Amino acid sequence: MSAPQLLNLSGLSTQLLGRPTYHFEEVDSTQDMLKKMSGGVQQGTVVFADHQHKGRGRNGHIWFSLPEPQIYFSVLLAPKLSPPKFPMINIAAGLAVIEALEVCGIKDPKIKWPNDVYIQQKKAAGILSELLTSDVKERPFIILGIGINVSANLEDFPNELRDRATALSLTGCTCDRLELLCKVLNALESWFLMLEHGNFKLIQSEFSKKWLFHEKQIVVNMDSNRSLQGKAMGIDEDGALLLQKSSSEIARVFSGEVTLQT
Ligand code: BTN
C-alpha cells in the first residue's frame, strides 16, 4: 500500500470533516484503512483513495471500484446520537451526496432507500456505514464510506452492472473530483450537525422529496424468505422505511432491498 499524503482541499468550508484528509494512491478499502488508523486520529478524519482493490458494499457485497478518477473515501464520526438514530446517518449522507451533485449541475439525482444515489434510474454512488466497537465507555465511532463513480465509459463496468450502474461523466457532468469531494464533505457536515441537533423532521421531509420510490408501490426483500409489499410512505425519525400495506397498516422496515412492484 502507498504512503499517505495530507490533502489540502481549498474548497473545504467545514469545521470538522476532512480535517485532516489523508490521500492514498491505493488501498484495499478506505473503510479498512481508516479502521486501522482510528486509534490515533480524531473525529472528522478522512481517508481518500485513488484506487481500491477490495472496495466493500452493504450486506457483504463488493463495491466495484473503477480506476481513477473516482471518489472513494471514508470519514470517522463520533455521533452525539442514541444508537436507534444511527440509521439516520446513512440518510443524511445520501442527502449530502444528492446536494453536492445538484450543485455540480446534475439534474434530479434520487435516493433509493436507504442510501443509494441514482441518476436517471441507475446507481452512481453508494454509502456504507460501519460501527466501530470499543472497550472504552466513550461514544461509539462510525466509519462512513462513500463511493461515487465520477468518470467512466459504460464498457468500464462489468457486463452485469451495465444496465444498473452509471458514472457522472455519462450524464454529461464534467465536475472536478476534488471539488466534488469538498462539496460532499461540506454538505455532509451540515446534515450531520442537523441530525445531532435533533432536526429529524427536516431530514424526513427532504428524504421524501428526493426518494426514487416516493408514494410508489414497492416490494422490500428483507432476506431470501421474507418480503413485504406496499406503498412507500417515507421514513420515520429513526430512518426506518414506512410501508403502507393493503390493510392500511403501516409497517416499519429497518433493512432490505427495495424494488418497484411490477
Ligand atoms: C453500497 O452501495 O453497497 C455501498 C458502497 C460503499 C462504497 C464505498 S467506496 C469508499 C468506502 N470504502 C469501501 O470499501 N466502501 C465504501
How does this structure look, described?
- It is a single chain.
- The chain has two domains: 5-210, Bira Bifunctional Protein, Domain 2 (BirA Bifunctional Protein, domain 2, 2-Layer Sandwich), CATH 3.30.930.10; 217-260, SH3 type barrels (Roll), CATH 2.30.30.100.
- 21% of the residues lie in helices and 29% in strands.
- The chain has four helices and 13 strands.
- It starts with a strand and ends with a strand.
Portion in helices: 10-25%
Count of β-strands: 13
How would you state the average pLDDT, rounded? 94
CATH class of the largest domain: Alpha Beta
Distance between the termini: 46 Å
Count of distinct structural domains: 2
Strand order of the largest sheet: 1-2-3-4-8-7-6-5
Bound molecules: biotin
Order of helices and strands: EEHEEHEEEEHHEEEEE
Beta-strand percentage?
25-35%
Within CATH, the superfamily of the largest domain carries the name Bira Bifunctional Protein, Domain 2
Number of helices: 4
**Category by helix and strand content:** alpha+beta
CATH T-level fold name of the largest domain:
BirA Bifunctional Protein, domain 2
Q: Low-confidence runs (pLDDT<50, min 5 residues)? A: none
CATH architecture title of the largest domain: 2-Layer Sandwich
Major sheet description: 8 strands, mixed
Radius of gyration: 18 Å
Q: So what's the overall shape?
A: globular
